[in-house]
Amino acid sequence: MKNKMLAVLKHNFGYDSFRLEQENIIHSVLEGKDVLAIMPTGGGKSICYQLPALMLQGIAVVISPLIALMKDQVDALQANGIHAAFINSTQSADEQQRVMQQARNGSLKLLYLAPERLNGNSSQYFLQFLKELKPALFAIDEAHCISSWGHDFRPEYLQLAVFKKQFPHTPVIALTASADKLTQQDILEKLELKQPEVFISSFNRPNIYYYIEPKRNAIGNIVEYLRGHKDDSGIIYALSRASTESIASRLRDAGIAAMHYHAGMDNAERSKVQEHFQRDEIKVIVATIAFGMGIDKSNVRFVIHHDVPKNIEGYYQETGRAGRDGLKSDAILFYSAGDIIKLKKFIEIDGNPEQTAVSEKKLRQMQDFCEHEGCRRQYLLHYFGEQSPAFCGSCDYCMSELEEKDATVDAQKLLSAISRTGERYGAGYIIDFLRGSASEKINPAHKELKTYGIGKHLKKEEWQWMIKQLLGQGFLSKTDDAYAVLKLNDRSWAILKGEQEMKLVMKKAKARAVPDEELTYEKELLKILREVRLEYADREQVPAYHIVADNSLLELATYLPQTFDELKQISGFGDYKVGKYGSGFMNAVKTYCREHKLNSQMHFSKPKRERKEKIEKQHASNTQMISLKMFKTGLPLDEIAEQRNMTLSTIEGHLSYFIGSGELNISQFMPRDKTEKIMGAIKQSGQSHAIKPIKDLLPDEISYGEIKMAMEHYKRMQMS
Ligand code: ADP
Ligand code: ZN
User: Fold this and answer.
1) 77 lines ligand 1 (CB under 6 A)
2) DSSP-assigned letters across all residues of 619-684
3) What was the pLDDT predicted at 348?
4) Residue to substitute in 5, 15, 23 for testing ligand 1 pocket (most ligand atoms within 8 angstroms of CB)
């Protein structure tokens, strides 16, 4: 059976291998079992019922709560030549009748329905219709909607228990991306699944790179980022409706086509924006969290949070909209402690102290995550109850240069200070105590203790760093309330007794080398292929990625297939798509190769899976980080500019960001007198945000890039 499953996957969807638990899930469904499948967003839930639908005799009925999503799914299936249709309230009665007729006469493999169909007046009529169909499978998407524990309870889902009651022998597969235990249990019970098999896939999204950056000149940084990602689609989330509008307009001022989206707009406006985005006509949407539900776009390359989200659940869901196609994508959050203070007021619910306390706790965890000195991914997965290694290699923390240093003695000093003062204080007090602060806040009795003032050799920030690491590595605990009192635990005692060493992770001065050159693709050809795809998409009135996904285009532009047999080896080209669109794409590739005297590169291609990983790596990552890394290897700036095919001023712009964040120092780039000269001009211009007036005050040979660096340095001086 497994071979047959793979053959169907290849033939109909053009994929070579299953992801996560797909194979086991499909296997169980085909054996007639009830299944609950829990997979993260973008994990590939749809194939878990679409593929069985193709293999089973008869029709599969799919329940989906979101009308927009339904149409998208059906379009995607039809693009693969699979007969599918939906019935929902957007259709006329005639249309609905026509689809029902198609279903009755057996010409559909999948029928999508909204859950409302099984409620109210028409429910009996519909049930009768389903009985005539004798479905081979029921699939319930977004199954967490059945649970009031979940975040999106929909009472009409409760009716879905009718499937097992009326069709006891038809398998039911419930699918969701919601992980928590209560919700899972609720789904199994409320749907009355029989001896269900539960499959839980990891929540890790390895292709999403997490970055948290200090919120300083956020718009400027966003513009910079977008300029480096001109061909990419993405979402920028902001807290308020007004700010989505103002950010979008500032981006347009900077020459970036961006639109805003929020719940205050009328329906027509909102669907227009959504459609532009789905069709790749607008690449950048600035939105409140209202944007996302029902967006099934697979090639979202970045999600940027301009403001701090209220909780980690929301953050993870929003960042999860990036990279559904499995290609490398960025999640960037601009953090400021000020945002947390603002949010505190927002989340207070009048007259409901319990709910307020829950929200406050979630906000504290969000803040913790932002300030976390350790692997971001580990923190997130840990939050969702999953184990994960301490180093993921693809978050800002893991990508910075780090080294370990033995800090056992200092850790012992810190822990004994906590112990001696009775485990009743937060980090601030303990640090003041260790550093021998004369402040009146320190209890006079504590000033008599032996440990008072034994930590003068370290700066306040260094002690803060140590405390974070001790907490992160589990050598110290803290209470969950607003005061965050530090408490010792069993592992603390192991350090105090000298049974356990404490390693402190430090930013490393000297850097590693830049990774090897990767295979390159034909940039011009990729553009041409995008146009070919857009033509097909316009003709068929479907989103571009339904024709073929971005990574398929990348593979075409990399391996330059010249025959249909070669084309079939490209990921995403199943037999149907090769037949329907193959000649269009191949002609484009062949013409390009003729003009540029290029041949097929298919012999370089590895089995698809490995290949994909390689191509992913080429995709530009956070552009500032790359410049930083190259700079740290000791390359001169003009060399970096040349290698990256960017102007010197752009590279200086990238690095100036790190001057602002304190990671680099201006003295690494220019002599002191030059810095002072520019700083003088900044002061003279009376402002520090517009660069042109400053440039005008300076001799020509001082470049924009240098001024940018000095401006960042100036701002940093002002702040400290
Ligand atoms: P979910 O519903 O879990 O968020 P989807 O079912 O929309 O995710 O799948 C996300 C993307 O992954 C889609 O573009 C889908 O075609 C693709 N995909 C699913 N399974 C595979 C696979 N085995 N190999 C390659 N791509 C896959
Ligand atoms: Zn990491």
Assistant:
1) no
2) S---HHHHHHHHHHTT--HHHHHHHHT--HHHHHHHHHHHHHTTSS-GGGTS-HHHHHHHHHHHHH
3) 81
4) 15
